[in-house]
Design brief:
Elements lengths: L6 H17 L34 H23 L10 H6 L6 H22 L11 H11 L2 H13 L5 E7 L5 E7 L10 E7 L6 H4 L3 H7 L6 H10 L2
Antiparallel strand pairs: 1-2, 1-3
The protein binds manganese (III) ion (MN3).
The site of manganese (III) ion has 7 residues, from helix 2.
Length: 240
């Protein structure tokens, strides 16, 4: 959490933020300096901060990636740094075995490990060349499970609207390799429920408030314009 940061971290973070703001539409800078020492690193945004405009604005993307996501990584690294045996586990393993972690770090790993996993997926399943609709076997599976792609979109948006407060709405693959729409509160990951997230939309206000304010329904609808369906298909294909 920000309050645990040293003054130097804050100054460094501030300097970075100012630099990005001035650069505006440049490629994402390396925000790794903010993520503290540890096994986990902030993945670079795979496109420019303004690449998803007008659907998601550059300022939201900058703060979201460089501040929010970076903080989850830093907090996760800090929490597990006292447990060398845990630093060898993958993020997925940590999230799958939350209840077997030392009690004093369970909540921190749940929130910040979840936050790191959720956002890492979020950047990947969006693209400036997004939109369109799923193709191939994923399209067939969506039709089979939800009736049609528009019917799936309706159910996904309704589920997202139904989340009270902060959380996520997901398309997941179950252990039986069926598709399901699920929601999670806060930064909880479907991985902790034994499910594989294929697609997720961030329902925290930090993801959309500058552009959409209280209009979450508008954000949910607009967001389809940036969904990277080839990346979602790859994830579905990888769940054997
Ligand atoms: Mn977020």
């Amino acid at each position: 959490m920000a309050m645990n940061w040293t003054r130097r971290d804050c100054l460094r973070g501030f300097g970075l933020g100012v630099g990005l703001y001035v650069l505006g539409s440049g490629r994402p800078a390396d925000a790794q300096a903010q993520t503290a020492d540890g096994p986990f690193t902030l993945p670079p945004l795979p496109y420019a901060y303004d690449a998803l405009e007008p659907w998601i604005d550059a300022r939201t993307m900058t703060i979201h990636h460089d501040k929010h996501h970076a903080a989850y990584v830093a907090n996760l690294n800090r929490a597990i740094s006292a447990y060398p045996e845990l630093t060898r586990l993958s993020l997925e393993d940590l999230l799958r075995r939350l209840d077997r972690l030392p009690t004093e770090i369970q909540r921190t790993v749940r929130n910040n490990g979840g936050g790191h996993a959720n956002h890492s997926l979020f950047w990947e399943i969006m693209s400036p060349q997004g939109g369109d609709e799923p193709k191939g076997v994923l399209a067939e599976a969506i039709d089979r499970q939800f009736g049609s792609f528009p019917a799936f979109q309706d159910q996904f948006e309704a589920a997202g609207l139904g989340v009270f407060g902060s959380g996520w709405v997901w398309l997941v693959s179950t252990p039986q390799k069926t598709l399901e729409i699920v929601t999670t509160a806060n930064q909880d990951s479907p991985i902790s429920q034994g499910k594989t997230p294929l697609l997720g939309n961030d329902l925290w206000e930090h993801a959309y408030y500058l552009n959409y304010q209280n209009r979450r329904a508008d954000y949910l609808k607009a967001w389809w314009q940036v969904v990277n369906w080839p990346a979602v298909s790859q994830r579905w294909d990888a769940t054997a």
